[in-house]
């Protein structure tokens, strides 16, 4: 990936199990500035798709209204761990994590986001580019 990510919107691309099957494409928000990462999903009652926090190696759910799925990603957007976090929790930082992907609780299992899967992000305006 070339350069740093910037705040923006785009698409999260999740590969499917079969090579012949089209990947799953989901709405993606990128929060890369300190202000955007700090706000994250606070104050929201739902999430359309997912939010990528970058750089980030850990998150908290203090002030959240809903439980969320959290995927810790390495620098290549490979999933290192996936956790569901209820509101009011502190997630410990993960070694090797460079990005955190957040979504509504239960969504990631349905999308096939699990350890070892390499995701892609196409972001409008070249904010980080595709991996």
Describe what this molecule looks like in 3D.
This protein has 131 residues and is mainly beta. The protein contains 2 helices and 7 strands. Strands 5-4-6-3-2-1-7 form a 7-stranded mixed beta sheet. Mean pLDDT is 89; it is low at 127-131.
* Main pleated sheet: 7 strands, mixed
Strand order of the largest sheet: 5-4-6-3-2-1-7
Helix fraction bin: under 10%
| Radius of gyration, in angstroms, nearest whole number | 14 Å
Order of helices and strands: EEHEEEEHE
N- to C-terminal distance:
5 Å
Helix-and-strand structural type: mainly beta
Overall number of strands: 7
List keywords for this structure.
2 helices; mainly beta; 7-stranded mixed beta sheet; globular; 131 residues; disordered C terminus; 7 strands
Topology:
Layout: E1 8-14, E2 24-31, H1 34-39, E3 50-53, E4 68-73, E5 79-85, E6 99-104, H2 107-111, E7 120-123
Parallel strand pairs: 2-3
Antiparallel strand pairs: 1-2, 1-7, 3-6, 4-5, 4-6
Compact description:
The chain is mainly β and 131 residues long.
């Amino acid at each position: 990936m070339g350069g740093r990510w910037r705040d923006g919107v785009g698409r999260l691309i999740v590969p499917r199990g079969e090579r012949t099957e089209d990947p799953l494409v989901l709405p993606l928000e990128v929060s890369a500035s300190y202000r955007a990462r700090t706000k994250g999903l606070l104050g929201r009652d739902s999430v359309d798709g997912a939010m990528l926090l970058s750089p980030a190696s850990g998150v908290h759910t203090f002030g959240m209204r809903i439980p969320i799925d959290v995927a810790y990603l390495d620098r290549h957007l490979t999933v290192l761990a996936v956790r569901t976090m209820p509101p009011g929790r502190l997630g410990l930082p993960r070694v090797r994590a460079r990005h955190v992907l957040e979504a509504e609780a239960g969504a990631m299992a349905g999308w096939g986001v699990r350890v070892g899967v390499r995701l892609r992000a196409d972001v409008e305006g070249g904010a980080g580019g595709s991996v």
